[in-house]
Amino acid sequence: MELKFYLYCLADLALIATSVVYGVKLLRKRNYLLGIEWLVVTFSATNLMINALTGENVFYSISLFCDAFSRAFGVPVIAVAGMMAVTHRYKPSLVVDVVYVVGALAGTVIVWAADFMVEPKPYFYLVMWSLFSVYLAYVVKRLLSIGETLNAVSVILALVSAQIIASTYDFYRIPGDDDHMIFYIFALLTWSYQSVSLYYAYCALERAQEKERSHNRGYTLRGLERTPQ
Fold first, then answer.
1. Which residues cross the membrane (predicted)?
2. What dihedral angle (degrees, nearest 10) is formed by the CA atoms of 48, 136, 83, 72?
3. Residue 197 near residue 153, CB atoms below 8 Å
């Protein structure tokens, strides 16, 4: 087998490992939206690995559907809603979480299967991911505002690299990369890095949020102590 096949498998293994580890970490933080989306990526990457090792196309088809889910709604909608817990204090109920996931799944089926989406589909994916990138730019701004420069730089790298992948995914082929494997090596590594980067950005914003909450509680208590009885 060619070297690029082994690099492809290693990149896919990296995505499986990072998405499952940080997906579980997010579930433990009770952020079910981010956790579920990360685990969808794990499932997609696992099927991609099985396809590479067995050649069974059914696993590739499953991976492509999961990929469509993440590109269309999983990352641009579900991941953004999950990250808003630390950027906008948005914490939907479990029922609303289920609505997000079911709605995203229904939307993906339409995008995946509807005849009228065949031609606009690549542009739809690109627009949705670009909107996600705009939100990440806001996350960078928030990180800088709390002094988390290293995490901000990390998210910038994730934003730029993932946007490049999204912008070339359906529109450009690397010369000589007939099986698209070289492109996927870069894409898988980019998505793996993004899953790690956003987790630590989430943690940094969560710490800042908790610090602000503690400060406000202390300020309120001091105010009560000064109030004449």
1. 6-24, 31-50, 62-86, 98-117, 123-140, 152-169, 181-205
2. -40
3. no
CB-based burial label for 143 (10 Å; 0-12, 13-18, 19+):
buried
Report the percentage of the chain scoring pLDDT > 90.
86
Q: What's the domain range around 209?
A: 3-220
Which has the closest alpha carbon to 100: 44, 195, 36?
Answer: 36
Structure confidence by residue, pLDDT tens digits, 187-211: 999 999 999 999 999 999 999 998 8
Residue-wise pLDDT for 79-129, tens only, equals 999 999 999 999 999 999 999 999 999 999 999 999 999 999 999 999 999
Backbone angles phi, psi at 150, to 5 degrees: -65, -45
In this structure, what CATH number is given to the domain that contains residue 178? 1.20.1070
As for how many domains the chain has, the answer is 1
Side chain identity, residue 209: Q
123 domain-assigned: yes
Report d(CA 147, CA 95) in Å as an integer.
35
Interior/surface letters 191-221, b for 16+ CB within 10 angstroms, e for the rest: bbbbbbbbbbbbbbbeebeeeeeeeeeeeee
Measuring CA to CA, which residue among 19, 29, 21 is closest to residue 209? 29
pLDDT at 214: 75
